[in-house]
Every structure is written in C-alpha cells, then in structure tokens.
Amino acid sequence: MFFHAHPDDEALLTAGTMAMLAAEGHRVVLVVATAGERGLAEMDPGDELGETRLKELYESAALLGCARVECLGYGDSGLSPKGGVADERPDNAFIDADTEAAAKALAAILHEERADLLAIYDPAGGYGHPDHVQVHRVGKRAAEIAGTEIVLEATVNRDPLVRLLKLAGRFYRFPPEFDVRTFEVAYSPGETITHRVNVRKYTKQKRASMAAHASQASGGDSDRTLAVMLKVPRPIYRFVFGTEWYVRRDLPPGARLTHPFDRWPK
After folding, report:
1. What gap in Å lies between CA 70 and CA 195, rounded to an integer?
2. Which residues form a coiled coil (predicted)?
C-alpha cells in the first residue's frame, strides 16, 4: 500500500516502484489523504478541482497497475506562500486531523488488504508540505495499529539533487517553488537511505502517470514542476527518474537494498 497526501504525489515519488510491484504480480493499493482541491491549476481551487484531480488519480493508478484506489476524504491543507501551514484552510484540513483517528482509518484498509508493506514519507515530509508531514505521522501510527511489518519512507537522495539544481540554476530560471536552499534540508541525505530501487524499466509508466495529472502541469505564474519534468527528453528522463529512494528505519542506515521486499542482511 502506498499512502500519499494528494493526487500526483504518487507519480513524483513512487510511480516506478508501484508499476514494478504490479508487474511482479503484487496487489498494489493507492491511498490519498485528500483530493488536492487547493492545488494550483487553471481552474479555481475547490470541489471542481478536487473532482478533476481524483479522476486524474484513477487514470494514473490504472497506468501503474493499481488494484484499488481510496481517498480518506480530508481537506487539502494548502501551503502558505512562504511555505508551511496556510493560515486559511478548510475545517477538515488533513493537517488538523486527529492523528489517531486518521491512523485508524488507514489501518482499517491495511487490515482489509492484509498489506505486507506501507510506503509513506520521511519525517520532513519530503520538501516540507504540512500534509506530507502529516502523512508520515498518520502512516507510521497506522502501521503500528495494523502490525504492518515493512514501512518504507519515500524520499529523494538530496545530495546529488542539490548539486544538480545548483548546476541547472546557471542555465534555467526555476519556478518560485524551486528554492534550492529549501532542498538543502529537504528529503534525506544519502547516508540514511536504505533502498535504491532501479525503476528504469518502468519509466514509461512513470512518465505516463505524471502526464495523467494534467491539471497540475498548468496554473500559476511560471512553469509548474510537473510540466518541467515532462519536458525532459525521454533518454534523460529515464536516467534522472530511473531510481526511487526509501528509508526503512528498522534497518541500518545505508543498507543499500534494491527491492522493497529485500531482507537484511541479504
């Protein structure tokens, strides 16, 4: 089971792993906390955008081979212009949800599916979106309740990422959300990562999953992150997005495993 905050998060961080596991015959379940109704798009934020993003989520999930998709139904908490928790957010915002209640809702699906593995985010929530941080808290607790043995924190190796962004910044003007300084403390340092999953065979599905979230490739005053990624030439895309990273906290840091179900020691 893969637990994400909003539609399109699965495409960015775990799509290759999901497609790989589905191709291997595993039952893959995708759960999102919110419909992402406060995301940027050419249409106004609200119920209409949430409905659109859920439709895109189902399309993405089908491309990746998911057997089931669920939305917990919490409100998208949004993000303040400076990062962090937005001042104005819905009454049922995920960031304000009771962690235990949300965890029990997720644990019920884990029980029903008899899931062997739960993928969440690292404690920083990747780049720090409040809903992503909440996914970590809720997912970790849900795994405890359900007795799910394997918990993987989806992340990015920030060491080469920061080097790449600094180099790219010499030639390209990134959109406002691409502040390199924030990435210096985002995600996870390479020394803590336990799983480096080679998904190059599945980058076609990963790219198609990204493209399914068309509403998130537009809107705002500059190029959106998703739009920029989809402009990357396919051979380079396969190289850049052909690895997905995870941290499993009950294993030694830097264990260097290559499959979500690898045992330690090999």
Report:
1. 26
2. none
